[in-house]
Design brief:
Structural class of chain B: alpha+beta
Oligomer: heterodimer
Helix content of chain B: 25-40%
Order of helices and strands of chain B: EHEHEEEHHHHHHEEHEEEEEEEHHHH
Radius of gyration of chain B: 19 Å
Order of helices and strands of chain A: EEHEEEHHHH
CATH architecture of the largest domain in chain A: Roll
Structural class of chain A: alpha+beta
Strand order of the largest sheet of chain B: 4-5-10-6-7
Number of helices of chain A: 5
Helix content of chain A: 25-40%
Number of domains of chain B: 3
CATH architecture of the largest domain in chain B: 2-Layer Sandwich
Strand order of the largest sheet of chain A: 2-1-5-3-4
CATH class of the largest domain in chain A: Alpha Beta
């Protein structure tokens, strides 16, 4: 199957590559762009590990083909910290509050929390739990993640 | 897993999309938000030689108010439907059902038309469309525009009255005015899961608190979304405050066929949950209607907000 051209903006930089139509945006970022911060857990939209921002909206990158992102603006977990490496408030809070154990789910959580707090800067416990219900942590470290969201909300 | 190979098409207009569907027929599938289709492709539960991506078509977006109805473009994302003040005022059931669809990351991509055309019996929008007697607008290169009543649209599990060359382009919802109440109740094990059962209720009271009209839609209780005609008929003409919710629940569950049974719950369990949800939704909608000032929202004022 012929590959199609894909031109998009990833973390502020223009990327021009090709992709087979069936290649997901997540695989494209990992394999074609070398951005392996985006993780793939289930590959069918259940676990949330591959969450990133497309045109500013949090989406599952395993449920979108790279060719669908042609011309769009994508932000991955690699684009969340400041250019000098300073962690974002969400990232710093995840570290401070022990919001990660094995770390596999963490990129998806960071992206979902970043979007959640942008839309709702002071969420309640219930709103956090509902907002993060689409991200699974199989280490079950949810209390630390909850604490991290509260800290990030206060420091952002 | 990874999807099987397919050819990708991104038509620039509704006409182009319809032409592609006419040319490719059964070998093609419309890709809207992809939040149900892509998992099915990835799990290799479905194969298509061609995907026709309609997710960027401007012709499938937009919201218009026309007389006593609200028309939404099929390509509106669930997030956009849920955030629209005009939708919330004109068709409260749509706005209230939206937060129960998947997770916010899913709603950012998933679309109104995609959900209805996919026709999952446990999905929220199909049940709302059926309950409110929405009209589904299909478009094809051969027949042009065709309006399908919701009552004729859902033909079976993941099956609709759409022809292989037809694209769902819009959905028209009646706007209820007067002393109305609306409620959505569903039960799921976890936030964002498909509901084990769910119920949507719309009712209107007349001047002496009797039920002028009632619509009860149900999800997760059959191979399609369902209405509860026996319960609706029993309610109309009665005083809302004197109706026994448990009896309405029993009537709504009577005669159900093809009730799903899986690890989430047996058919018997779903019926018990469904009956209770009918009672709760009826109570909530009744209370809202009784407290309503009777002015309601007119189609025109809904349009003024966001038209």
């Amino acid at each position: 199957m012929a590959e199609l051209p894909v031109r998009l903006t990833v973390n502020g930089e223009t990327v021009e590559k090709t992709a087979e139509p069936r290649m997901t945006l997540a695989d494209f970022l990992r394999e074609r762009c070398g951005l392996t911060g985006t993780h793939l857990g289930c590959e069918h939209g259940a676990c949330g590990a591959c969450t990133l921002l497309v045109e500013g909206a949090a989406v599952r990158s395993c449920l979108m083909f790279a060719v669908q992102a042609d011309g769009l603006d994508v932000t991955t977990v690699e684009g969340i910290a400041a250019p000098d490496g300073t962690l974002s408030p969400v990232q710093a809070a995840m570290r401070d509050c022990h919001g990660l154990q094995c770390g596999f789910c963490t990129p998806g959580f960071v992206m979902s929390i970043t979007a959640l707090l942008r839309d709702n800067p002071k969420p309640t416990d219930e709103e956090i739990r509902e907002g993060l219900s689409g991200n699974f942590c199989r280490c079950t470290g949810y209390q630390g993640i909850l604490a991290a969201v509260h800290q990030a909300a206060e420091t952002a | 897993m990874k999807p099987a190979r397919f050819e990708y098409h991104r038509p620039g207009s509704v006409d182009e999309a319809a032409a592609l569907l006419a040319e490719l027929g059964d070998e093609a599938k419309v890709l809207a938000g992809g939040q149900s289709l892509v998992p099915m492709l990835s799990l290799r539960l479905a194969y298509f030689d061609h995907l026709i991506d309609v997710s960027r078509l401007d012709g499938l977006r937009g919201l218009t108010v026309d007389g006593a109805s609200l028309r939404l473009g099929a390509g509106m994302t669930e997030a956009a439907v849920g955030a629209d003040v005009g939708v919330a005022r004109a068709v409260p059931l749509l706005a209230r059902a939206t937060p129960l669809i998947g997770h916010f990351q899913i709603r950012n991509r998933g679309t109104l038309g995609g959900s209805i055309a996919h026709a999952d019996p446990a999905a929220e929008y199909p049940a709302v469309a059926l309950a409110l007697d929405a009209e589904l607008e299909a478009f094809s290169a051969s027949a042009g525009r065709r309006v399908i009543p919701a009552a004729e649209f859902f033909t079976g599990l993941w099956s609709t009255a759409l022809e292989p060359d037809e694209l769902l382009v819009g959905v028209r919802f009646p706007v209820w005015t007067g002393r109305c109440g609306f409620a959505v109740e569903e039960f799921a094990r976890r936030a964002g899961d498909f509901a084990i059962a769910g119920v949507v209720v719309a009712l209107e009271l007349n001047g002496d608190d009797r039920v002028a009209r009632a619509a009860i839609g149900m999800l997760g209780l059959g191979s399609t979304p369902l209405r509860a005609p026996a319960a609706e008929a029993a309610a109309v003409g009665q005083r809302a405050g004197e109706l026994d919710g448990a009896e309405l629940g029993r009537l709504a569950m009577s005669g159900l066929e093809d009730i799903p049974a899986d690890l989430q719950g047996s058919a018997d369990y779903r019926v018990r949950v469904g009956a209770e949800l009918v009672a709760r939704a009826w109570a909530a909608a009744s209370a809202e209607a009784a407290g309503s000032d009777g002015v309601g929202v007119t189609a025109a004022s809904a349009g003024a907000i966001d038209g």
